Amino acid sequence: MTADVLQQFDGELLIKILNTLKDPIWINDKNGNVLWVNQAAAETFSIGELIGNNVFEMEKQGVFSPSISRLVIEQKRFISTAQITQDHGRLLVSGDYIPDENGDIQYIVTHARQLSQAINQSSELEKVESILQLYKQQIRELILQKNQQDEDFYVGNSKAAQSISVWSQKIADIDTTILLTGETGVGKTAFAYRIHQLSSRNHKPFIHLDCGAIPESLIESELFGYKKGAFTGANVNGKLGLIAAADQGTLFLDEIGEFPLHLQSKLLQFLQNKTYRMIGDNQVQQADVRIIAATNVNLMERVKEGTFRKDLFYRLNILPMKIPPLRERKEDIIPLLNFYLSKFNQKYSRRQTLTKNLMDTLYNYSWEGNIRELENLMERLVITSTGPKIVLEDLPSDFPLQQSQQMLLQNIEDMSLPIYLEQIEKSILIKTYNETNSTWKTAKKLGVSQSYIIRRLKKFNLRISEKKLVEE
């Protein structure tokens, strides 16, 4: 083809040519945002406007699995594999990237074909099916390997971390409801996703609904969906609920303790029978969905208060799992610090290390915000520290432990030595008790008697409130 002919292929003509193809074509940017699709893609993935969506989010929503663009971004090479769509269709999808002037990914182009067409053309149905199974197994293994690198609560050698890992493998393919409990920030969402990936449902959607983040008036429509014209202001085409979107997959109901009381019977019915009704519809729908619920509150207390149904609690509590707070698995703090240091060094192209003094300080910190607090602090330190080593002075001024140490050092000139030593003893006593939640354990850890601890609490005007030491 001569240069003169090539010049005739302007943007408008090229779009017309691509739209004549019966196979879906996608063009995404390096972050997975959809820039353009041809007409075949728009018809294959009937979810409304595709342009402007993000393939990572669509993969999480179960529109397709896996995302070929994600695989291209992660592996930076040509990818060709099988893909399963939300309506259970099978595609043979290939993707590659267009580099920028530095050789980095600028755009990603993917091409799909119905797997049945590829089978008919090759006349090798048995071979292609076996290849499909191999692809699915390889993709599952890759996902599990990636999750093991990303899921922080598996980092470390504590009995708690090992127990969580073993338990997740045992219950993954026991296809019943799971209830995860634990404080905010311990990793309940990551644990739920881990179970999903280990289960036979791993190639189907994993849908996350935070019951505490959605207004009570919207939860029913979000979860169960509604029919066309169900209520004033409803979408003219109706709306598919998250239960339907999670069909054959997993629905993670986070903060289940905040689920509205008047809808709990409807949720209970679904858990028992796998049936439900959309808003404005008399027809009973069915969905094969595994429910994993999570809460950081005591549901039995909610039952006693009358804000949570007892029968729903027992239906959710078939396989309960408590994820311990970080202060109860202190052996994992140093591995977690190293894990996140490596993660954020890689993300921000840094080579920082932690000094021993800082490591010791963070090891002895109570971490009330658990793994989430540790992760956020490490990212902040990697970003804000300037030297090759992150030192104690790099801790933010609002960091509780650093703040208390600074106050003691600043006030030393205004104190006598006995008073200064008492302040240090008081600080150690508070920190140790808040880690152990027991005067006996505090005494054992500090090498003194329990009666000594009780006397010091009285001397320093400290009292126990909600398992924490506070000043009277």
- Write down how many β-strands occur, each being a DSSP E stretch of 2 or more residues: 19
Ends distance: 87 Å
Q: Report the CATH topology name of the largest domain.
A: Rossmann fold
* CATH C-level label of the largest domain: Alpha Beta
Q: Which outline best applies?
A: globular
- Approximately how much beta-strand content do the residues carry? 15-25%
Number of helices: 21
- CATH homologous superfamily heading of the largest domain: P-loop containing nucleotide triphosphate hydrolases
The rounded Rg comes to 28 Å
Outline the structure in words:
46% of the residues lie in helices and 17% in strands. The chain has 472 residues and is α/β, with parallel strands linked by helices. It has 4 domains: 3-143, PAS domain (Beta-Lactamase); 157-324, Rossmann fold (3-Layer(aba) Sandwich), CATH 3.40.50; 329-399, Helicase, Ruva Protein, domain 3 (Orthogonal Bundle), CATH 1.10.8.60; 415-471, Arc Repressor Mutant, subunit A (Orthogonal Bundle). The strands form 6 sheets. It has a 6-stranded antiparallel beta sheet with strand order 2-1-6-5-4-3. The chain has a 5-stranded parallel beta sheet with strand order 8-11-14-7-15. The model is unreliable at 1-7, 118-131 and 133-143 (pLDDT under 50). This is HTH-type transcriptional regulatory protein TyrR. Keywords: Aromatic hydrocarbons catabolism, ATP-binding, Coiled coil, Nucleotide-binding. One of its GO terms (biological process) is regulation of DNA-templated transcription. One of its GO terms (molecular function) is ATP binding.
